[in-house]
C-alpha cells in the first residue's frame, strides 16, 4: 500500500522529519521564505496531511483544493489564526497545534521584553556601540522600576499565568483581565481580576497574552493608550494585530506611554519605513518568543506527532477542534 502524502511547508528539526518519513511520503518546502499562495494551493492537491506554519493561510479553499482525502492539519505554533478552524471542523479535519511546550520560553521572553523596554537596553547598547555614550550622567538613560511595580496581564491563559509567576520574583503586584475569571489560578498566585479600564489605569506594565480573534483585533488603540499611565510600558508577545500600530506610534511619540516591547507586529515583517521603527522607545524583535533550541525542537516533535496520529487515524495529542477528533480505528 502506498504511503500517505504530506506537505511540510518549512524545514523543521530533522528527527521530526525522520519520524514523519516512517509513515508518509514527504514534500518538504525547504526555502527560507514561505510558499506563495499559488504554490501552496498547487502543492496541496491530493495530500493527506499538512504540517504548516502561522505564515501559511489554510482556509476552506485550500482544504477543498487539497481534496476530500485530507485527514489532518498540523500547525507548528500555539496560535492558529491563520487557519479557518470552522472550515476544518465542517470538513471533519482535526487541527493540531503546539501548546504547553512553548509556554515557558514564551513567558521568559515576554519578561525579557518587559525588562529590556523598561531599562532601555537597546538604546543603551546602541549608544555603547556608536560612540554617543560620552560619560556617566545622572539624568541619562532613565527607565522604569520593575521591582515592586504593578503588572497588568491581559489574557490569563497558560503564558499569561507563567508571566505572572515570573513577576513574583520582582515583588510585583499582579492585576489581570480575562473574559473568564480564573479563580483556580488565583488560588495559586495572589492576583486580582479587574476590568480592562482598571487594568489600563493602574498598571505600570501591561503585558498582552490573548489569542487573535475578532474581539481582540485592535483591542489596543488610541482610547486604551490614553487610559494608561505616562510611565507605563506595553509588551506584546501574542499577535501583532491586537495592537493598532499607528495608535501605538502616536502614544509613544506623544509620550502618552513610556515604552513598548513587541515580539509581534502587523504585518510581519514590519515594513522598513514603518513609523514605529523611528522611535527609540519601541523595541521590536522578529517574532522569536518561542525560539530556543529545546522549545523549537519540542514544537517540531509535537507537530510531527499530531500529523502522524492524524494520518493513522489516531487522536491528536493536542487538537484545536477535538469534536472532530474522535477516532476512526
Ligand atoms: C507563535 O507565535 C505561536 O503561536 O506559537
Number of strands: 12
What share of residues is helical?
25-40%
Classified by CATH, the class of the largest domain is Alpha Beta
Form type: globular
CATH superfamily grouping of the largest domain: NAD(P)-binding Rossmann-like Domain
By DSSP (H or I, 4+ residues per run), the number of helices equals 12
Q: Structurally, how many domains make up the residues?
A: 2
Structural class comes to: alpha/beta
User: Bound small molecules, which ones?
Assistant: glyoxylic acid
CATH architecture of the largest domain: 3-Layer(aba) Sandwich
Largest sheet: 7 strands, parallel
Global Rg = 22 Å
Strand content: 5-15%
Question: Element order, helices and strands?
Answer: EHEHEHEHEHHEHEHEHEHEHEEH
End-to-end CA span: 17 Å
How does this model look, in words?
The protein is of the alpha/beta class and 329 residues long. It folds into two domains: 131 residues, NAD(P)-binding Rossmann-like Domain (Rossmann fold, 3-Layer(aba) Sandwich), CATH 3.40.50.720; 182 residues, 3-Layer(aba) Sandwich (Rossmann fold). Helices cover 35% and strands 14% of the residues. It is built from twelve helices and twelve strands. The strands form two sheets. The protein has a seven-stranded parallel β-sheet with strand order 8-7-6-9-10-11-12, sandwiched between helices. α1 runs parallel beside α12, α2 runs parallel beside α3 and α5 packs across α7. The protein is globular. The two termini are 17 Å apart. The structure holds glyoxylic acid. The site of glyoxylic acid (GLV) has 6 residues, from loops.
